[in-house]
Design brief:
alpha/beta, TIM Barrel, 13 helices, 15 strands
C-alpha cells in the first residue's frame, strides 16, 4: 500500500498494513533553528510550503510520510487584500499596522509574541458594502487552474490531497474580531447574517468550480480556528442556525463527487461545535489540540460513534523534552489508534523548541509501535 491508500483505509475502517507517520508542517522559526544547528542547509528551508517538494524533503529526513494539510482550493478570502501599511508609530516604539485582512495590530520588530489586535475596519454596513462585499465576489481568478490541471490524473498519487473548501466563519471572526462579532450580532443581526451568507456562497462557488474542473481529490477540508481553550468564540446555537446550512450545502456537493471524508481544522476546545459539524457533513476533526484542555478523540467517539474520525491528537510539547516523553506520548496514543478511524499527527505545526533528534525518534518509534 502507499500512504494515500493507508490514510483512506484507516479513515474508512478498512484493513491497512501500517500507520502512516503524519505531520502538520513546521513553524518557519523551527526550520531556521534547525538550519543553524546544521540539520538542514539554508537552501533547504527556502520556499517551504505545505506539501511542496521542499517541505517533503525535510519531512523525509525526519521520517514523516506526508503532511495532512496538503490541500488545494479556491481563494475564498478578500480579493484584493488590503494594502499592508503602518498607520501610526507609538512613543514607545510600537507600530500600529493595518493588515491585509483589515485588522490593525500592535507590532514591534523585536517582539516574539503574536501581535495584539487594536482595531479593525469592518464596523458596520457602510464598511461592509464599500470595503468588504466587493472583495468577496466569486470570479475565475480565484482558482489556480494550472494547479488543478495537474491534479486531474491521480493514477500515480502516493499521498492524499484535499480540496480546501474555505472558511465559513473563521475569516469573519478575524475581520470583525471577537468583540466586534458579538456586538454586530446584537446590533445588526441582518448584516451579521448577510456576511455569513456572502462568505458561504463564495466558498460554495469556489468548491463547485474546483470539482467541476475534473481535478481529483481524496478528501474535503475546511479551516476555522473559532475556539479558545475554554470553548467556541461564537454561540453554538447561532453557529448551528446561520453557518451550519452552508456546511451542509458544500459537503453535500463534495459527497456527490465521491469525497466521503471531510476534515476540519479548528484549534481550541471544539466540543460544543463537534455535533454541529457532524450534523452538517464534517466527519473528521483536526488537529485535536491536546493543549491545556486535553482534547481527545475518545469521548467524541463514545458520543457520536464511528462516523466521527480524527487526524491529530499527538502532544507536540514532547518534542521539546526527551525520548522518554516521546515514548510516553506514543503509549498514550495506543488505545486511540485501536479505536480505528484515527491517524495520530502532531496537534499543530512543530514549534521552535522542538529538538530535531526527538522528532526523528518519534517517527522511528511510530513505525515500530504501529507498523
Amino acid at each position: 500500500m502507499n500512504n494515500r491508500e493507508r490514510a483512506l483505509a484507516i479513515l474508512n475502517y478498512q484493513d491497512y498494513d501500517r500507520m502512516p507517520v503524519v505531520h502538520f508542517g513546521f513553524w518557519d522559526k523551527t526550520l531556521v533553528k534547525w538550519a543553524a544547528e546544521g540539520h538542514l542547509t539554508p537552501a533547504e528551508i527556502q520556499g517551504v510550503a505545505d506539501g511542496n517538494d521542499q517541505e517533503r524533503a525535510i519531512a523525509t529526513k525526519l521520517g514523516f510520510d506526508f503532511n495532512w494539510y496538503h490541500t488545494y482550493g479556491a481563494h475564498t478570502s478578500l480579493l484584493p487584500a488590503f494594502e499592508r501599511r503602518v498607520v501610526e508609530v507609538t512613543p514607545d516604539g510600537f507600530e500600529k499596522v493595518l493588515q491585509e485582512d483589515g485588522t490593525v495590530v500592535l507590532h514591534r520588530g523585536d517582539a516574539g509574541a503574536i501581535p495584539a489586535h487594536v482595531d479593525h475596519l469592518l464596523k458596520g454596513r457602510k464598511e461592509w458594502e464599500e470595503l468588504y462585499l466587493p472583495r468577496l465576489q466569486y470570479s475565475a481568478e480565484r482558482i489556480n487552474w494550472q494547479a488543478l490541471e495537474a491534479l486531474k490524473d491521480d493514477s500515480g498519487r502516493e499521498e492524499p490531497i484535499g480540496l480546501h473548501c474555505g472558511s465559513l466563519y473563521g475569516n469573519i471572526r478575524t475581520w470583525l474580531t471577537l468583540e466586534g462579532s458579538a456586538f454586530l450580532l446584537a446590533d445588526d443581526e441582518a448584516l451579521f447574517t448577510e456576511i455569513i451568507d456572502t462568505v458561504g456562497e463564495l466558498c460554495y462557488r469556489g468548491t463547485e468550480a474546483a470539482l467541476a474542473s475534473g481535478a481529483k481529490f481524496d478528501f474535503a477540508h475546511f479551516w476555522e480556528d473559532i475556539c479558545f481553550k475554554s470553548g467556541p468564540l461564537i454561540n453554538p446555537r447561532v453557529f448551528a442556525a446561520k453557518v451550519g446550512p452552508h456546511y451542509k450545502r458544500i459537503t453535500d456537493l463534495t459527497r456527490s463527487y465521491g469525497l466521503n471524508i471531510c476534515s476540519l481544522d479548528c484549534d481550541g476546545k471544539i466540543d460544543a461545535l463537534v455535533p454541529i459539524w457532524m450534523e452538517n457533513g464534517v466527519n473528521t476533526m483536526f488537529p485535536i489540540e491536546v493543549g491545556t484542555w486535553e482534547a481527545d478523540i475518545q469521548p467524541w467517539r463514545a458520543a457520536y460513534g464511528r462516523e466521527l474520525r480524527g487526524v491529530g491528537g499527538t502532544n507536540k510539547v514532547v518534542f521539546s523534552r526527551d525520548y522518554a516523553a516521546v515514548d510516553a506520548e506514543i503509549e498514550r496514543l495506543r488505545p486511540l489508534v485501536e479505536l480505528g478511524g484515527f491517524i495520530p499527527c502532531p496537534d499543530h505545526r512543530i514549534p521552535p523548541d522542538a529538538k530535531w533528534e526527538n522528532v526523528q525518534y518519534y517517527c522511528e518509534r511510530m513505525r515500530q509501535v504501529f507498523g
